[in-house]
């Protein structure tokens, strides 16, 4: 089974009005990324996946110009609506800011909507990831069995603090909450070494490979670190739609050795790559397979 664990909720149900069109030049080096999209665009992008985990980032405005963040009530409502219409393929994660006064009301509402995990980006949401409100929220997620997917690593957004996304911050979270299931997005690029040694030591901490296949050396180096440290089995497939599609992610992974062709550099074993593509992400995160569900 192919599970794409990293997809941003489509911004529009049907046609995108001209005034809502957004594109952003800093996510990829080869082309601009159109971040306004429809349910049909999303369906086409994730077609190779059997299951997709869907979310956006709840933030006041940090990503508003890119179309990748919204107020919590908007992003969670939109995510739940898409999942309700696509119950056998989509799993929805909520996004909240643990420091907001109404966070627990929104968490309760999101859970009633059927969202079963959390997406956090402390750098975009501008909260201290080891602060008291965040730690209280992680404790709740551990207790309630809600996996958290953290944005990890670089960002082109100027005011988003990089130190909030450094992988060793997640190491401290995992030490404090050993039963909390965590996904470190993007293998923490460019800090893949720190990500690998973190996922290696914590049984319930994983990393997704979303977006790293857009940079050939980052991809090769990241997978090599994971292979040499015996942590390749902790890697999960992710596309980072709309930045890329599931098919792009799979094809990119399978090109990992192209950059070292004809050299004496070690190759990434084919089975490592195929195991990422077919990883048991749902089992790892304690999530039910949605393919037995029907529309409510």
From TrEMBL:
GO MF annotation terms: carboxy-lyase activity; hydrolase activity
Any matching Pfam family: Amidohydro_2
Organism superkingdom: Bacteria
Keyword tags: Lyase
InterPro entries hit by this protein: ACMSD, Amidohydro-rel, Metal_Hydrolase
Residues covered by the Amidohydrolase-related domain: 74-251
Protein name: Amidohydrolase-related domain-containing protein
Organism lineage: Bacteria, Bacillati, Actinomycetota, Actinomycetes, Propionibacteriales
